[in-house]
Specification:
The complex is a heterodimer of chains A (about 425) and B (about 300). In chain A, helix 4 packs parallel to helix 5. Chain A has 2 domains: about 160 residues, Aspartate Aminotransferase, domain 1; about 230 residues, Aspartate Aminotransferase, domain 2. Chain A contains 13 helices and 14 strands. The longest helix of chain A is centred in the last third of the chain and has 26 residues. Helix content of chain A is about 40%, strand content about 15%. Chain B is an alpha+beta fold and about 300 residues long. Chain B has 3 domains: about 80 residues, 3-Layer(aba) Sandwich (Rossmann fold); about 110 residues, ATP-grasp fold, B domain (D-amino Acid Aminotransferase, Chain A, domain 1); about 70 residues, ATP-grasp fold, A domain (Dna Ligase, domain 1, 2-Layer Sandwich), CATH 3.30.1490. Helix content of chain B is about 40%, strand content about 20%. Chain B has 12 helices and 13 strands. In chain B, strands 8, 9, 10, 11, 12 and 13 form a 6-stranded antiparallel sheet that branches. Chain B has a 4-stranded antiparallel sheet with strand order 4-7-5-6. Chain B has a 3-stranded parallel sheet with strand order 2-1-3. In chain B, strand 12 and strand 13 form a beta hairpin. Chain B is globular, with a radius of gyration of 19 Å. The chains are: A alpha/beta (about 425), B alpha+beta (about 300).
Amino acid sequence: MSGGTTLDDYTGRYAQRIGGMTASEIRALFAVANRPEVVSLAGGAPYTAALPLDAVGEMLKDLMSKNGAQALQYGIGQGLPELREQICELMADVGIDAAMGASPDDVVVTIGGQQALDLVSRLFLDPGDIVLAEGPTYVGALGAFQAAQAEVVHVAMDADGLIPESLEAAIAHLATQGRSAKFLYTIPTYQNPAGVTLSEERRERVLDICEREGLLVIEDDPYGRLSFGGQAPKPLRARRREGVFYLSTFSKTIAAGLRVGWILAPHAVRDKLVIATEAQILCPPHFSQYAVSTYLSTMPWREQIKTFSQLYSERRDTLLDSLADLMPPGMTWTRPDGGLFVWATLPEGLDAKAMVPRSIAARVAYVPGTGFYADGTGQRHLRLNFSFPPPDRIREGVRRLAGVIEQEMAMRAVFGSGVGNSAGSVWPGADNPGLA
Amino acid sequence: MSRVLVLAGGLSYERDVSLRSGQRVIDALKAVGVDAEMRDADLHLLPVLREDPPDAVVIALHGGIGEDGSLRGVLDLCGVPYVGCDAPTARLAWDKPSAKAVLAEAGIPTPEWVALPHERFSELGAQAVLDRIVERLGLPLMVKPAQGGSGLGASVVRTPDSLPAAMVGCFAYDQTALVERYAAGVDVAVSVLDVGDGPTALPAVEIVPNSGVYDYAARYTAGVTTWHAPARLDRGVAAEVAEVALAAHKALGLRDLSRVDLIVGADGEITVLEVNVAPGMTETSLLPMAVQAAGLDFGQVLATLVQRAIAR
């Protein structure tokens, strides 16, 4: 190899969008996070061990004996008709009903919420297009938008979710540049990663702004049913027939491993979604759809969601209590009323990404905030998951994390080196009151 | 047929790299008919070593227990032979400042350095110590963890004001930082192998990262670094590089295999940066490249090293 080798014979042939894909030391550090020795507050996994696994096993056995040949066959691109009907019954629970224009005919079943995001991106985004999204926002959505070579402009949130004034200001700011966003992507209820919920009053204001500005809304609602005590505000789609596409998933309410989600979109868009999904995957997994459909029709799924919510509520309490008991002054965090995540902000000058190796050495893992901002800012923040680790592990994880933060503070005090742009950045010039 | 246990994974920062090394070693050994199995170094290891001991162990663990001698010590306690140097040697070579002291003592050039635990900075005043470092060693400087690999926590410092951040980044990975004068030049790695006729230097591999920095991404992403094996060195320089690498291997008392990382300066001056006792074995790692450049079969080489370990 006198001319040298890059060990990749295909260098120069890749699409432009592949350019930035390199090995990452942060991703490598997470290889340790899944080991049992490490308390992982990093994941986003539901606690599937709380499912009635024996009963689910019997249900699947029954499904196979009665309908196996069909369940293992190809399906149609739009998804199993009976499942789409059941999805509409579910959506009707939260106000997205026939009166609001929801019909099984306008539901497209997807491989989890992630494929729904990819399909929406394929349909609506050209390279250079702008997407408005909460800052911070779901890392998988950023991945889908970035794969479509779109630019994400973050809009500030506070404890009541997306700030309508910031949304207006962001739209106006783009207009001064002669630009406009293709859509607003939002997770209004128990947001990932921030854990906050868009308040009742703000829902109407955000919708009014989007309506007035002709801005399409992509509403992502994976966590809305995981409420701790109170009732979540009605989804945006339950308030407007037009201009809101609704995305959801069974990943958090039944099982993430089945990979079944859906989009509710207007008729004309639905047609294009079906064509796009057929080009991509032919059809969503038939077996998984049958499993979900059978589960919904034969198992006490509402009670199971209550079980999940109760479990997560206790774990949320443990996490919040542990943070209050153990964290050093200067640390703040959100107080979610549902969902899976708490968003924490480190004392000034600390960098959650730079702190990862120290935390791995202390056998505790979290996700640094930088992954939730398109421009990689958000160094001061971290996302903590409470759905998966049991309470005693959550407390132990927080204890370890507190030690790591104290060491890091001591180190920063010695060297006096803070990080430059430490909070997550929203659109230039915006006021960002912060989340906690 | 020998039964080989390949240890990979671990809890160090290099777990991911280690798992890739381990798989590559398994594939290479199986390709030459050796019965090889991979296992993590965890709670299940000692029961397995006691109840179903392998004929030999290949350590593909990077960082921490894989290189600091501690796992080798445990294998000694269990009476299980392993490929590579013994525990005390690994402990010495793994600690970069200790290894550099041995090299310097043996007359092998290595960049001037200072190694300081973070407590010294708080006790003596960080700025005063940093000022003294810059005054004495000059700029640019290389800051890296005293123990560790894969370029994690390492950075080049070109201005005095970027030194504190580099120290903080380094101390995230280790309690002690090694700060050394930055050696500019061609990056080469020489793998040293002893398959029975004494240590031999394999052809040097030259490393040219696209970004100019051989960091984690440059090491483990195919396509963003160009490797030349053999390195594009004059014959005389290549011979000298091989000689220096062999001298380093011997000075540290290493055994079976090692990888010596060196810089060849513009004036032909050769300096040793560090020596690795458990070199990477991944698809983009330097030792397997050198083995190939030497016209050897990676699996055969490993199988021979395993036989030597068993015979010890």
